[in-house]
Design goal:
The complex is a heterodimer of chains A (297) and B (222).
Chain A (H helix, E strand, L loop, with lengths): L7 E4 L17 E6 L8 H9 L26 E8 L5 E8 L8 H5 L6 E4 L4 E3 L9 H5 L6 E3 L4 E3 L5 H4 L6 H5 L5 E5 H18 L6 E3 L9 E5 L19 H7 L1 H24 L5 H11 L1
Helix pairs in contact in A: 7-8
Chain B lengths: L9 E2 L3 E3 L3 H25 L13 H26 L7 H8 L1 H5 L14 H25 L9 H32 L3 H6 L2 E3 H7 L1 H8 L7
Helix pairs in contact in B: 1-2, 2-5, 5-6, 8-9
The chains are: A alpha+beta (297), B mainly alpha (222).
């Protein structure tokens, strides 16, 4: 267990303040994925299953350069392959390394009912603690990126940890270490944003990608994984990357106004019934009525 | 004097059978399963009550058993429908009953219109649990197998996470009033769902229409 588990910023399903909140400050960490230099080699996929000690699972070949249809509970990092037809009819191969985005405002953590099953460290990494997971799947409803995946046998949910065990010891995530083209970078959020913006500018000015830009969606408060895209105005073409992701409205309503209204109603109802009993008491006892009935008879 | 419609319900010593053994048994299957569902559900609902899972073997076990108990509750509600639905139709007297609710709340039952075997509040409870149970089942199945729902159908999940707690809260409100009435307010009501019988006085006071059916007249026959 690394020291990082002690430095917690947000905690799921937790009543009251976060223990140790604001006692330490850390730089936000960030993974930068430059889709324009990814060659789809899958080295990062292999490094991920290797480091995280997950066996390679059977896959489905669907005539594309994609390892399997989607990420799995034991396959957290998948390069999505998309053949995009441009307006002029030419083809463009898009490779996007898909995995947890490590949102600043994580929908999974928001939805999770179990105390401490999902935490966000002060460095921004969102991590699932499977020993506290109850297997309800609410995180799956809360995530705008379709990332948490359940092991249906053990009923525990898994996703990319951003190699928090490596990062807390000063190493970069395994995927970063394995990347042969240098399309993956790791550092502080500020540094990665600078690097991403510089690359986007280069793409705009020297490579003819007028819409090149950085994907760091504000709807989830920014993410701990950011992309450089050839066309940031159309993130959907990269295997359905949402253009403006946010925590689903129903999850927000459920976890905020509804929760407080509901709790108020339950407590109000209990108090109301108790006060009613004090003021009016039980209805007259049946024996009193029997007497009256006899009198009437 | 009209003939009693259900003279077989009259028991010795001024008692009358209100609930048969089967009705009582089914009531308690529903009640105990509902209490389990409510307590584990409240644990998943708010962090302040997550500790309730400790009473039921911890979070994972509570989550695993909750849907199965939900199925038991569903069956019990269906059986209730078979037993009682023909007695639960809203009638003219029920409208008057709602209009006189203030007298019921303030224990002035003599001013209430003559309720039948079930008063309008009990009928509302019945239909709330029937339709509520149906909605809880539908949304509950979505939440039970939430990981199997494909991404393109995710709006099912978004609906379920709202429908399930809203309907649950409505049933909890009904449940609290039901328990309060049955255990604390109407003396004799709790016994009726344990031993099955109530006094004739209880029947006459709270369910005059039913009383009339039993004895054949609003006046006692003895």
């Amino acid at each position: 267990m690394s020291q990082a588990t002690l430095r917690i910023n947000k905690i799921s399903g937790h009543a009251g303040p976060v223990p140790g909140e604001d006692t330490q400050r850390q730089d936000l960490v960030c993974k930068l994925i430059d889709t324009t230099t990814c060659i789809g080699c899958k080295a990062c996929e292999v490094a991920c299953v290797e480091w995280n000690d997950m066996p390679f699972s059977p896959t489905v070949f669907d005539n594309t350069y994609q390892t399997m249809p989607e990420t799995r509970w034991n396959y957290w990092n998948l390069i999505l392959f998309n053949e995009h037809v441009r307006e002029d009819g030419t083809l463009q191969w898009l490779m996007r390394k898909n995995g947890c985005m490590h949102c600043a405002e994580p929908g999974c953590l928001e939805a999770c009912p179990s105390d401490g099953a999902i935490v966000q460290y002060t460095n921004g990494v969102v991590d699932f603690q499977q020993d506290h997971c109850i297997g309800c799947g609410y995180c799956i409803a809360g995530c705008p990126f379709d990332i948490p995946k359940m092991n249906t046998v053990t009923k525990r949910v898994y996703k990319c940890t951003l190699c928090t065990d490596r990062v807390s010891e000063g190493l970069e995530p395994a995927c970063i270490k394995s990347c042969p083209t240098g399309c993956l970078h790791f550092g502080t959020k500020d540094d990665m944003k600078d690097l991403a913006n510089a690359r986007a500018k280069q793409l705009q000015e020297h490579y003819g990608f007028a819409n090149a830009g950085v994907y760091d969606p504000p709807g989830v408060g920014g993410t701990g994984v950011i992309y450089v895209l050839h066309d940031v105005t159309k993130p959907e073409i990269y295997g359905g990357l949402p253009s403006n992701p946010s925590i689903p409205l129903s999850v927000k309503l459920w976890k905020h106004p509804l929760k407080w209204l509901g709790n108020l109603a339950i407590v109000g109802g209990l108090v109301g019934l108790f006060v009613h009993y004090l003021k009016f008491g039980p209805k007259p006892h049946e024996e009193e009525d029997i007497t009256k009935t006899k009198d009437a008879a | 004097m009209s003939q009693p419609e259900h003279p077989d319900q009259i028991l010795p010593h001024g008692r009358v059978l209100r609930y048969t053994f089967k009705e009582r048994l089914n009531h308690w299957v529903a009640a105990l399963s509902y209490i389990y569902l409510m307590l584990t559900g409240l644990a998943f609902w708010t962090p302040s009550l997550f500790w309730l899972t400790a009473l039921f073997g911890g979070g994972p076990l509570s989550r695993m058993v909750h849907p199965w108990v939900g199925l038991i509750f569903t069956v019990a509600v269906c059986v209730m429908y078979v037993f009682w639905h023909h007695q639960m139709g809203f009638e003219e007297v029920d409208k008057q009953w709602w209009n006189s609710l203030q007298y019921y709340i303030t224990n002035q039952d003599e001013k209430m219109p003559p309720a039948g075997r079930y008063n309008a509040g009990q009928k509302l409870l019945f239909w709330t649990f029937l339709f509520g149970g149906f909605l809880l089942l539908l949304s509950g199945v979505v939440l039970w197998f939430t990981e199997s729902i494909p991404w393109s159908w995710r709006y099912l999940r978004y609906m379920a996470v709202l429908v399930h707690p809203i309907v649950a809260l409505i049933t909890i409100g009904n449940f609290m009033i039901h328990v309060y009435m049955g255990v604390f307010a109407e003396r004799g009501a709790f016994g009726s769902v344990i031993r099955g019988d109530v006094s004739l006085a209880f029947a006459k006071r709270y369910h005059p229409g039913w009383y009339k059916e039993i004895v054949g007249s609003t006046e006692p026959t003895k």
